[in-house]
Design goal:
Blueprint: E1 8-16, H1 27-42, E2 46-55, E3 60-64, H2 71-79, E4 86-91, E5 95-98, H3 111-121, H4 126-140, H5 155-167, E6 173-177, H6 185-200, E7 204-208, H7 212-218, E8 221-226, E9 229-235, H8 236-252
Parallel strand pairs: 3-7, 3-8, 5-6, 6-7
Antiparallel strand pairs: 1-2, 1-4, 8-9
Helix pairs in contact: 3-4, 3-5, 4-5
């Protein structure tokens, strides 16, 4: 694939954990600390071991695999939240990331304030974010709770708002990790349609989910991670078949 045709280019990526960082009390520090504690608790000490892949603009790639295989770590490194131990990660354009339901939302700010904050973190002007506010709120069906503190919202409400913010702020790369697990089927369909529209505009999507019907609905390509390595990369149905065979074999031996 020519360099200009790559939205994401990862070469020989290694990520190991050597203890939790002292990240301070800023919003960014809170996000990094929360994510790193999650990874350290759920991933193997050598979370990624020589991962290489490329993703083209407009392509949607699922990342599947058992718990602890490195899926969330991979998206964390792509987003810049985690620093790789070695290897290269190159991304092109604006990255929007949902590593879990509204993980970057400030709990004491309202939904409206968080929408503006997220846009400005992505480098947008306040007025640019406000011009998208009505569409963001309508997509999330958030009119009734937009002025409430985010900490008072349900997981589903936060996931709706988080997805809508990311999907309406002109991403070039959209990283999604398990967020759709806490919303209803009607919202799933709206999300799938929005992702198709983004892909038509050239947005690359990386999608982590344990729900294979969601994986099939979003992605034509999938990669299978196991113990921090890519063991399959190809058409979604074929990779899912390999994953299900691997999971069945694991259950048989345990």
């Amino acid at each position: 694939m020519p360099e200009a045709a790559k939205a994401i280019d990862i070469r020989d990526l290694v990520k190991r954990y050597r203890g939790l960082p002292n990240v301070g009390r800023s919003l960014k520090g809170a996000v990094i600390g929360r994510l790193t504690r999650r990874y350290a608790a759920h991933e193997a000490p050598g979370a990624l071991r020589g991962v290489s892949l490329t993703v083209a603009p407009g392509e949607a790639v699922a990342v599947v695999g058992p718990n602890g295989s490195g899926k969330t770590t991979l998206l964390g490194v792509m987003s810049g939240v985690l620093v790789p131990t070695s290897g290269e990660v190159q991304t092109r354009g604006r990255i929007c990331v949902l590593l879990e339901a509204a993980v970057a939302f400030h709990p004491d700010l309202t939904g409206r304030e968080n929408v503006i904050l997220q846009g400005m973190i992505l480098g947008m002007r306040r007025q640019e974010v406000l011009s998208q506010l009505d569409d963001i709120v309508a997509f999330a069906q958030a009119e009734a709770y937009l002025e409430q503190a985010v900490r008072t919202l349900s997981l589903g409400q936060r996931a709706r708002l988080g997805f809508s913010v990311a999907a309406h702020l002109s991403p070039d790369i959209f990283l999604i990790d398990e967020v759709l697990a806490v919303v209803d089927e009607e919202f799933h369909q709206a999300c799938y349609q929005r992702l198709r529209e983004l892909r038509e505009q050239g947005c690359a999507v990386m999608f982590v989910s344990h729900v294979m019907d969601q994986v099939r609905a979003v992605c034509e390509r999938a990669i299978l991670l196991d113990e921090g390595r890519i063991i399959a990369d190809g058409a979604t149905d074929e990779v899912i078949r390999q994953y299900e065979l691997m999971a069945a074999e694991h259950r048989l031996h345990h």
